[in-house]
Specification:
This is HicB family protein. By secondary structure, the protein is of the alpha+beta class. The chain folds into 2 domains: about 70 residues, Double Stranded RNA Binding Domain, CATH 3.30.160; about 55 residues, no CATH class. The protein has 5 helices and 4 strands, in the order βββαβαααα.
């Protein structure tokens, strides 16, 4: 099961209470927060934005190799990433995806636009049409 989680590194910032977060496997994702809780929230957003940018630029997502505390993008971005990767692997056209989900091609274009927000239910439907299943997990916050 793919989670889109990557190891994060947390370091003190220049100002008191500021935590800087970087991702060795995704160097474009760098952010900071006021305290650890805020730093983790900001890190999830920064990671999601960076991974969507990879897709938009036609780059493959890096394989997670680093170790440490794992941060995942927000759930809607994770689902969008899964759809985009599954679509690329399927080798089908936007028209075919639209047919499979019972929508017009304009809706399929929106679903496949990394920067267009898509409702989770629609992403789940697209994943099903691509032979995938969305699995959501919950764990204790660090």
């Amino acid at each position: 099961m793919k989670t889109y989680g990557y190891a994060a590194q947390f370091e003190p910032g220049d100002d008191p209470g500021i935590i800087v977060v970087t991702f060795p496997d995704v160097p474009e994702a760098i952010t900071e927060g006021e305290g650890m809780s805020d730093a983790r929230l900001q890190a999830a957003d920064a990671l999601g934005t960076a991974l969507l940018a990879y897709i938009r630029m036609g780059r493959a997502l890096p394989e997670p190799k680093a170790t440490g505390e794992t941060i995942s993008p927000p759930s809607d971005i994770t689902a969008k990433l899964a759809v985009l990767e599954a679509f690329a692997e399927a080798g089908i056209s936007r028209s075919e995806l639209a047919r499979r989900i019972g929508k017009d091609e304009k809706e399929a274009r929106r679903i496949l636009d990394p920067m267009h927000p898509t409702k989770l239910a629609m992403l789940e439907q697209a994943l099903a049409a691509l032979g995938r299943r969305l699995v959501i997990g919950v764990e204790k916050a660090a």
